[in-house]
Amino acid sequence: HAKQNHRGEAVLFTPEHETNMRMIAQIEQCLRRANLEQEIQLEFQPLFDAVEQTIVSFEALARWNSPELGAVSPNLFVPVAERSEIIHALTRTVLRKALKAARSWPDYVGVSLNLSARDLLSPRALTQIVAIIEASGVKTSRIDIEVTETSLLTDFVKAEAALAMLKRLGLKISLDDFGTGYSSLAYIHRLPLDKIKIDRSFIQEMHGNGVARDIVKSLIGLIGNLKLQCVTEGVETSEQFDLLRKFGCNVVQGFLFSRPIPQDEAPRFIAEVEAGRRPAERAAG
Ligand code: C2E
Ligand code: MG
Ligand code: MG
Ligand code: MG
């Protein structure tokens, strides 16, 4: 009866699981039949330079509005898509839409794209991804690829080679959700990384927790010592922001600055930041 949850911990089989499994099967069925081009929309969340408070890039976040299921959270449908080849079609749709949007932004605004381990490990998927990037006309130096550390552990050597190939094309590589997976500091320096994104769970613990603050400070120091850029996600309060800046974090992302915004609103958001009306007003208030 022993099952494993997503963290690989053994859990008992309960009726709840049966419901979950039925839900997963339903999501998978709807996703398989979905017209992704139509049903997947993007939201964009800005990443800010912690000192200058200028936009570094927008992260593309997939939103699925299923005719049968309604709005489904990416925390549900992305893992389901990742169980099969469905993820490749989802990734291609997100990349096409995100790169098309990025073409209308100023050159200094990058675009951050989440890739799944499966994308990196499939030569065919990777070839298609490169073709989409090349056809987009977006300069590769504007594109940031985000991968999670857990995703790299399935086949470290293959993933490392795939990232090195993307890096040779001029893309930037970020390690996403750092600290949540089975991170081994022994391999991090072997990866062709540009940035490390500290997971938001660390940032959220900082409030009134000296140990959590020390951990974040140490992580930021470690990332700096590796000569990598440090990004923190999930910044919700100006207290968190002040500490992160003091600790030397380079780039920040979170509800304090902006929630993910619909694709059409990105150009106006850029204009407002350029006019000095964001995000300082939020950070100060
Ligand atoms: P992620 O890549 O770590 O994205 C950041 C998530 O944190 C987003 O959730 C974002 O809305 C949320 N977030 C940002 N700032 C804050 C904050 O201040 N407080 C809180 N509480 N949350 C914040 P979202 O959009 O629900 O996406 C969840 C995850 O789904 C993403 O985590 C990513 O792993 C995955 N995902 C989303 N879109 C894609 C995609 O196109 N491809 C792939 N492979 N994965 C995706
Ligand atoms: Mg991400
Ligand atoms: Mg993240
Ligand atoms: Mg995260």
From TrEMBL:
<protein>
    <submittedName>
        <fullName>Diguanylate cyclase/phosphodiesterase</fullName>
    </submittedName>
</protein>
<feature type="domain" description="EAL">
    <location>
        <begin position="24"/>
        <end position="274"/>
    </location>
</feature>
